[in-house]
Amino acid sequence: GENVEQHPSTLSVQEGDSAVIKCTYSDSASNYFPWYKQELGKGPQLIIDIRSNVGEKKDQRIAVTLNKTAKHFSLHITETQPEDSAVYFCASRGNDYKLSFGAGTTVTVRA
Amino acid sequence: DSGVTQTPKHLITATGQRVTLRCSPRSGDLSVYWYQQSLDQGLQFLIQYYNGEERAKGNILERFSAQQFPDLHSELNLSSLELGDSALYFCASRQTGTPNSPLHFGNGTRLTVT
């Protein structure tokens, strides 16, 4: 089955700086890559996703890049704010439509 | 609010007991997924149902079972509970008919086995 690796496991950034989280996947047939944000006491919430026919997607301060050849994708958060502090999960979906998640990155934005 | 409702929010029970977790998917979503999130771990896929039928199985223990009812709500049954079953259990639903429609998660049920 699909194996998704996510790095780093924890990330501390100064408010206003950028945060980058990287993921790799194993199944070359994977074609959909969402990112989820999980705040304390809540379920994961989709923040951005990218499909395999696109190399980059941006939504305000959040961007995701995909390199299908290298089988890796990244989440970029610019101008970080305290409310960006949360656990972020990457995921990939193959042809079986099952989402496989990375282990998560705990992001802390220091004021 | 994702539109996915899970009950109860918290559950405390003893080893050897059986519990039932309930999930109501978003209106119109036919697919329901169950995930387990243990402390400091990611989301582990357990099982998926589509319109009442089991569609895919992940790392679900034999002591666990699930079903989806005609009104599309789903229940996850956990039996002969062990301390290691303590975790957050999430339900998610997805709009079908669109190949890469996103999963929408509920806020989970926190199970504590003592």
Short description:
The complex is a heterodimer of chains A (111) and B (114). By secondary structure, chain A is an all-beta fold.
Describe the structure.
- The complex is a heterodimer of chains A (111) and B (114).
- Chain A has 111 residues and is an all-beta fold.
- Chain A has no helices and eleven strands.
- Chain A has strands at residues 4-7, 10-14, 19-25, 32-38, 45-51, 56-59, 62-67, 72-77, 86-93, 99-101, 105-110.
- In chain A, strands 2, 4, 5, 9, 10 and 11 form a six-stranded mixed sheet that branches.
- In chain A, a hairpin with a 2-residue loop joins strand 6 (56-59) and strand 7 (62-67).
- Chain A starts with a strand and ends with a strand.
- The mean pLDDT of chain A is 93.
- Chain B is mainly β and 114 residues long.
- Chain B contains no helices and eleven strands.
- In chain B, a hairpin with a 5-residue loop joins strand 7 and strand 8 (74-78).
- The N and C termini of chain B lie far apart (31 Å).
- The chains are: A mainly beta (111), B mainly beta (114).
- Chains A and B meet through strand 4, strand 5 and strand 10 of A and strand 5 and strand 10 of B.
